Amino acid sequence: MATSKYKAQIPFRTKGQTTCTHHKGRKLDLYCEECQVPVCIKWVSTVHKSHPLCDLSEITHQTEQNIQSFIDKTEKVDLVQIDQYITSTDRHLKDNASIFENFSQQLKIQTNNLKEDLDLLTTQTLYLYKQIEEDNTKLLQTYKQDLEMHSTQLKHQVQECKVALQRGSDIQIYDKGCETQFPVTLPVKPALSTASFSPNKNPQGHHEKLSGKS
Q1: Mean model confidence pLDDT for the chain
Q2: Which residues contact 158 (CB under 8 A, 6 or more apart)?
Q3: What is the spatial distance between Cα 17 and Cα 13, in angstroms, rounded to a whole number?
Q4: Are 56 and 29 in contact (CB under 8 A)?
Q5: Which site among 97, 102, 137, 140 is 20 to 30 Å from 86 CA-CA?
Q6: How many whole angstroms separate alpha carbon 148 and alpha carbon 128?
Q7: pLDDT at position 37, please?
Q8: What is the dihedral of CA 49, 53, 55, 56, to 10 degrees?
Q9: pLDDT at position 126 over 80
Q10: Whole-prediction pTM value?
Q11: Is the Cβ–Cβ distance between 43 and 19 less than 8 Å?
Q12: Residue 207 reports pLDDT greater than 70
């Protein structure tokens, strides 16, 4: 191999250049086996003095074999392997697209099913709310009517008591006094049906279930 000192002394030869970089016009027809570089005859007595040399043409055969080996290995191994990788990658690309297209279709189907279930549940719940509301309305209206009737009766009774106190006879006052001894019994307040609704405090959890993450 050429030493670092040698490399620092000469500029690099341009690929394809047939003449010496330092000795212009001198043909590179020799090969320094120690430095493994083409040289001209003038370098033999200086930089490459005492180095083993040969004609550049003598290493051509081995170089051709090396080139042919490179060609054979590249065509039969490297390029074949790269083509296999390309084919495999194309297959992976198609599989990747297919997989996520399938995921997307499944998600859409599941979303539509959930929407249908939610719509049905909403309809059923709204119907239940309406029934409870109507039943409670009837109970409250009846209760109100009973209270109003009872109020009217009590007002009439109070008026009669006032009249008895103002101008009633002893027996009339006595009778009214007996009537007022009974406690006032109000209509029984109805027991209403109840319902509740709690907004979802963790919508993210449902989103994750929807997307198949949990």
Answers
A1: 84
A2: none
A3: 7
A4: yes
A5: 102
A6: 30
A7: 83
A8: -90
A9: yes
A10: 0.50
A11: no
A12: no
Contacts for 123-128 with beta carbons within 8 Å, 24 or more apart? 128/195
Element spanning 53, H or E: strand 53-55
Angstrom distance (rounded) from CA 156 to CA 85: 103
Dig out the tokens for 70 from the structure: 């490179």
CB-based contact 150:187 (threshold 8 Å): yes
Exposure string of 19-36, with b = 16+ CB inside 10 Å and e = fewer, is ebeeeeebebebbbeebe
| Alpha-carbon span 64 to 178, nearest angstrom | 139
pLDDT digits over 141-188, tens only?
999 999 999 999 999 989 989 998 888 888 888 888 888 888 888 889
User: Long-range contacts: 173-181, Cβ < 8 Å, 24+?
Assistant: none
